[in-house]
């Protein structure tokens, strides 16, 4: 099949023949141009085993272990608020009065007259809720961080594979140029152009490899059990979650933790108000005085005259009001964050799907066409190199769109507060 030189170039520059993937052609040039840009494999792991593996890896991260211990500390503090407010006091007295030795032994107990303990118990319940939701939020954020790192590695790995493939293609092209130059078919200019293109691609390949090594190091820091052959994101993750459904933000850990913190301070304000009321202390003692047995009862009550603690109560109320405002703000922020992440995800999803549709079936045809046009002399070496560059940009655009689409999906799952449920669904799948 014969193409007019200008017609073929117009099609190539318009992008109609820029492929998504390379293809295996009959010539050495086409074989060197063969590239793979396929969905990530999981190294033989099923989505269920991958999901369970990822959960285990995240649970072993130092940040998560530290968060667990911090939560346990807060739970212990909250548990302490279930106990009685005042401990009994042991009181003794000894004196010598003439020949008599006088002594007494007694016990005093301050009474929780205003039932401050029940308020503290409610506060402890809210502190447990806050600690649990803050831990859940941190776990979701760490999961999103890990998934973003995996997505970034897949992107950098694809770019590195693309760069290596194009370097090999240019090496093959250079050999063919030298052969055709020796036979008088091409000029020295063609060879120089091939050399220049190869020198540029060597730099691109080196940068891509460096970025790949850095991405792998970052991943191993997050996931000690990660390897190149396994632990990659399964494609089934991108089908989890209903983007058109209504997310229940009332269960989002950021909102629930903000609400729990507000309730904690609200109970603290109630406690501060009760502190303005004094609790009485009762005591009973027994002993001897002047040779006689003595039994005594005592009563004491603080008099809040110099300080009635009203300022502290007012400050606690203001702190509770501030926490309520932060809670309302968290709801508003999460609503808009969810709307934005949903819009971004839908846009990238649409463009990425469009890219896949446009590129479908064009890979093999374009690879063979480019090689055939150059070898037949219908396009010059400079034009062929320009087409290869545009082909490279088309492939890179696909990789970038895929990365943005997958990253937007992770962001959307994080904003819905269900990213951990998505991983659990994979782990539970059979």
Automatic annotation (TrEMBL):
Alphabetical keyword list: Signal
Signal sequence bounds: 1-22
InterPro entries linked to this entry: OMP_efflux
The keyword Cell membrane is assigned to this record: no
Listed SUPFAM superfamilies: Outer membrane efflux proteins (OEP)
GO molecular function annotation: efflux transmembrane transporter activity
Family of this protein: Belongs to the outer membrane factor (OMF) (TC 1.B.17) family.
Protein name: TolC family protein
The species this protein was found in: Thalassomonas viridans
